[in-house]
Amino acid sequence: MAKKGKDYFGLDYIVSVILAIIPVTSWICGFVTRFQEGKIVAGLLRLFLGWNIIWFLDLVFMLLKKQILRVINF
Hints:
Blueprint: H1 13-21, H2 23-36, H3 40-49, H4 53-65
């Protein structure tokens, strides 16, 4: 289970950044993380739209805020 306040399954920040850099792993980890948080709609949006602009925004947010993009919380 993911720890509160850490992204990508509670992994270390450096590991999360490395996973965010690679588009495929960012896409997979992004929607799995949102499903684990219980955010079904956000997980489905990441599943279908997470390979484009969301990947870039996840990378920027991970570097600046140390968490992935969270627009929808339901």
